[in-house]
Amino acid sequence: MKFSRSLKSSSHSVPSPDGQHIAILLSSLVHIRAVRSPEVVNVIKLPQDFAGPILGFQWSPSSRLLLIAGPEQVRVVSALDSSFHAAIRTASVPGTKPAYVGFGASDAEVCVISSYGLKFSLFDLTSSRAAEINTPKVFSPSSASRCFSFRPQTRHLALLSRVSGKDLISIHSYPTRELQRSWAPDTIDAQGITWSPDGRWLVVWESAAQGHKVIFYTSDGHLFKTWSGPANPSLEDRDYAIGAGVKALQLSADARFLAVGDCSRSVCIFNMASVTETMRLRHPKSVASTETLQVWQEQIGVSQTGPIMHTFLRTTQVISPAPRLQDNSEPVSGCAAISFDPTSALVATRLEDSPGTVWIWDLEAAELRAVLLFHGNISVLSWHPHVAETLLIRCEGEQYNGIVFVWDPLSEGPRSVDFSQHLPGLKTSGKPRASWLGSGMASGPSLFFSDAQHYVLGCLIELDEVAPPWASHHSPEPSYAAETREESPLELVPAEQDGPDKARAVEDDDDDYSELEDTFVHKR
Fold first, then answer.
1. Where is the composition biased (Acidic residues) (predicted)?
2. pLDDT tens across 338-356, in order?
3. What pLDDT digit, counting tens, does each position of 246-264 carry?
């Protein structure tokens, strides 16, 4: 394992999707650092009227733009130069904030869900136009992203809304967001909507309180199939009809499989080529290592002088995963998390009643491949987006603040990576965050770790002749600020002739910008 030196960070720092840059928000400045060198390649200064807490800090899908959202306005800026700058002012009740702010189907689109879910707004940054749709179905800010989905390739918007006490699905074209079709699904209280990654299916699922129901529509909105519970349930699941319904739903990245978890110990797997239930994965209450099943248990060693050591021992006896610690809250059960690896060969799950256990299944053989038992509750399960069968795991608790675990089938249990030993003071500050860096660099899978003050990069390589990403590039960093462009970074409209610093402003219900009122078409 190789590490970079620690660099200044903040509670708002995020790597770009292509893994080439790190954006750090420091007070009223945004620093852009290159991964391949420690240099700051651009500094973006926020306007003085941009005040209040930061609600969103996000890269665009192409890694060319940055979105910074506050309670009253949203700024979209070019990350590597000053050729683009857009401002969106959101009208809100004093003391409230938008439920969701983020990029839409492209760099040129920003989505804003107002407080209390009153309206769903889409701002087109190339034309300074906005489309508004009333009453999106938003339960809370944490679930706001489940009420809409963008279809791959065509970028159509599917939106779940609530009108007159009934669920409504609407399809809107790109980029105008004109309504193409709408219908009322056969649901009482739908909790989410999503397009399949290949764009063939639109999936809607009912809330757990209303029983088992997942509805599959074709891409043009026609009903194809309704799933109302597991086919041929086992003896343990024979009473599923009187229990709670869908709790977790996840599509694989290649659109081959769909996993549905309910409040039982089972997960249904669908083959999306025919939308049929092909297997049911049932979590056993006790496990033991075999030739085809690895069971690894965490061992924590405490040292008076050195760091806490996290190692794993392969069990040789039957063991039961540790149950959730009892408290005054109501008991919970069922599947809490599902995650497919990029090849759909493996799927990782976590149960509510054993939150410190990771179950890893082989979908081709339809059997359990590994069980990883931790002392802390699992908070993050993330497969590398491009490197097959490589899983990132994070746990809750102070003893895990600087620790990240990486597992793959050929390793001797999960591998602990201690980033705190590479931070000043050998400890973390604030809430730490960890994620995969970039899209499968030639030097090997890399990790991004940050706390409230510093960030560190780590690369999962051991050979000295292989250089990590931050040491594999020795040519001087190009001066992005000095470059001139004939087109804007969106590559959709010509660049402004008045200079690169000229900003587009899109104002929402603001009397000071009445000249844009006639562009607010497509209101419903």
1. 507-518
2. 999 999 999 999 999 999 9
3. 999 999 999 999 999 998 8
